[in-house]
Request: fold
Amino acid sequence: MNNSTNPHIQLTNPFHYEEKIDVILFAHDLIGTVRGKSANGLMIHNKIFNVVAIIDQMAINKKTSEVCLGVDYDVPIYNNIKNALKNHKAKALIILIAPEPMWYSEIEIGIYSKLDIINTSFLFLNKKTRFNKLSKNYNIDIYDLRDVTKIMAYPNVDILKRKSKVIYVTGTDCGLGKRVATIELAKEARKRGVNSVVYATGQTGLMLGEIGTVVDSLTIEFSNGVVSQHICQLSNMGYELIFVEGQSDIFHPANSAVAIALLHGANPDNIVIVHDENRKFHKGFDENSELYGMHSLERYIKTLELLSLPCGPTYKTVGIATIGEKNINAIKSFIDLPVADVRLENGPNIILNAILG
Reply:
């Protein structure tokens, strides 16, 4: 395969919006939960979307400022799209849950109201005839963000000659704040005048206006290669620092493949680990499950180094990002690395100092 002629591996953001637009989130049973992290991100860091309303039948009486981590303002919550549209105008409906048949009528109301549909699920709406026809009839766009089946590439040897410094922001579990840490570190670097970029690897990162691809939806044979090609493209664009957004973790029973694909595809110079010392069991399963215990942070650091490729840099962890003063103090008691909460004023500065050496 001649990767240089494959147009599907070119780095872009999938949206064509020229200015920030108002959107409604379709997020039943997500607001205020660990699985609602995409909604949180869309309210905190967005460059292209302005969230004007949320649809969640279980969260009608909740305030986003109280239940959504990092969100300091309130977005109105409704039980269905019809009620939301009575009070708010929007350009798009972002679907954060699986668009199963029970929700089709709600999605159709959105299309009838001339809303673009942004679908984050593995259930692709463009491949369903009824939605494909409706989108054409009402002249709206349907974005299936996880439909990346045409993206194929093998590793690029130029990854060993790149000039950019690559930072992989990983974590010891899902839902810890890897995306938040990645974005905050890139922002801090830009404040210092360092030409930096975020390589988004999940659907939320793309919806925040970053460039990249949804790595957990790639064909596994090509995942390392796509990441490698994209990192090379970013390096050729002249960025000094490339912050790679991590997904899942190398020990997660459900999603370890994507974490290792990112690690080896990006072949990073430095690693930042997001960790919660209070968490003892992997998330992403039953909230009350104690089946999948977590390894210690020390073992995680050691394993990442052992996974270094024989060509390129040794995977060196340079800092730990966490949440809250209690976590900072607990981790500092047994890890001799900079530890900080990147949500706090000086947090990104502490971690970035370690990255820049």
Remarks:
- The mean pLDDT is 93.
- The CA atoms of residues 6 and 74 lie 44 Å apart.
